Amino acid sequence: MNTVNFKRKSKISKIILVAALVAWITIPSKAQMAVVDPTNLAQGIVNSAQQITEASSTTKNTAANFKETVKIYEQNKQYYDGLKSVNHLVKDARKVQKTVLLVGEISEIYVTNFQKIMEDKNFTDRERTAIGNGYTVLLGESTDLLAEVKVIITKNGLSMNDAERMTRIDLVYDKIKRHRDLVSYYTKKNISVSFIRAKKTGDMQRVMSLYGNAEQKYW
Asked: Is residue 219 part of a domain?
């Protein structure tokens, strides 16, 4: 095989792998994964984020109702953990993997911290509802951003050269990363309210135990 043909086949293989990894965008599947398949893992993460968004937007943000959201997250966490462990990907697919994982991380930040906010007596029911609605909007926007990856597997997308394709992937990744950072900031600002209130009432020990110290906290 000459060098030209080898490079052409290598490029085609990269396109096929990237298309396979992002194919979950157009395949509405909720089946449990049977093998470690990046496509199924990515689909599972997106399905989970969409289900969490739907559950949060159709129910009141009470402790009892939020249990359903937590249940969805815990049932699908296997996809997030599984996709993080996948290493045998070419550069293009690796960036797509990281993009999908950011959505999984946003779900994790939301569920992990809103569980604690629901238990925190420093917030009123009305405030919890507002905070929960904010998370729902942010998570929904994050999953919507993934739709931009569709261009990679369209007719025009597949005709892109490697540089153009990577540029589009990088743009989507950067957008969702900024969204992840926004969710993290949103979490910090909400929790800081509880710390301020706890300091005024001498209840810092309880709040520290709930959210953790600088090394233990996650957001």
From this structure: no
